[in-house]
Amino acid sequence: MQYVNHPIVAVKLHFMLDVRRLQVLRAVVTSGSVTAAAANLGYTPSAVSQQVAALERQAGVALLERVGRGVRPTAAGQLLTEHAAIISKHVAEAETALADLRAGRTGRLAIRYFATAGAALIPPALSRLRDEHPGVQVDLKLIDPEDPLPEVEKGLADLAIVVLPQRQPRDGVRLVHLLDDPYRAVLPKGHRLADKRILDLADLADEPWVANEWPAGLCLQTMLDACAAAGFSPNFVVESEDYATAQGFIAAGLGVSLIPRLGLGTRHPDVVVRKVHNPEPVRAIHAAVRETSLAQPALRTLIDAVKAATP
Question: Is 2 inside any structural domain?
């Protein structure tokens, strides 16, 4: 109770005016009478009078005075009526902005991705997003070689393109399957196995290998797990940090490798690419999405566009 009696707190409490009652006051002032305002608002005159009386108690000053059969505002009433008009304008603007956001006409999407998904999937998806939702701003950021999933979990991004993580995402984040990206064997031209259309993965057991991901992540682990299932561990003789560089080493005859299909968008002219099986390594690519963002039409359009961009 001591805090309520503090002069600053008392002033704040004194002017915590009811917005709905302000609009009732505005209706009375603009129409010139309680009866006319009641008719316009669909209220009874008694209900309008009660709202104005309650507002006067909040304001601590009279807001209306009688003039003949009607009323007119006091100085305080005129002041609050003018502010009620401003509030009404801002509320209308807020409602319009919210409607635009819900319909996907405006807004902002924060998107995170890793390199090979960005090159193959993101550009055509963003082109469609721009056509269908031109008012939506996009915050696009490459998170490579880091895992982009934490950006979504922390609320820093609405969507991230990820390889299926080894752990379940935190509450509030949903994984939407986009595509399965199979790995292909990449060999130097003239390699002894180049004439085969499909290779058993074990055919590559005794070959020198070119590593293609640094630092090591889920994509490399998928390759290692497949090789283990085929009964061997690759003998890496060269390390590289991306698929394009790896192809250069392979073309020079330094080794072979497995590269996801999405990572082969630009092929070196001196390599050959072959399917593998027994087993065929596959990385599952998902969209990690904040569940609170799924209601945005623009985000749903983006997800559909990424799926449609699958080669």
Answer: no
Domain containing residue 121: 107-178+285-308
Look up tokens 């915050």; give the residue.
Answer: 139
DSSP 212: -
Q: In this predicted model, what pLDDT tens digit does every residue of 167-188 receive, in sequence order? A: 788 888 999 999 999 999 999 9
**Cα separations in angstroms, 256 against 156, 204, 259, 273:** 39, 8, 10, 10
Q: Which residue has the higher pLDDT, 31 or 100?
A: 31
The answer to whether the CB of 202 falls within 8 A of the CB of 185 is: no
Convert the pLDDT of each residue in 79-90 to its tens digit: 988 888 888 877
Buried b (16+ CB within 10 A) or exposed e, 167-176: eebeeebebe
What are the C-alpha distances in Å from 168 to residues 3, 96, 260, 293?
48, 38, 23, 19
Residue 1 domain-assigned?
Answer: no
- Tally of domains within the chain: 3
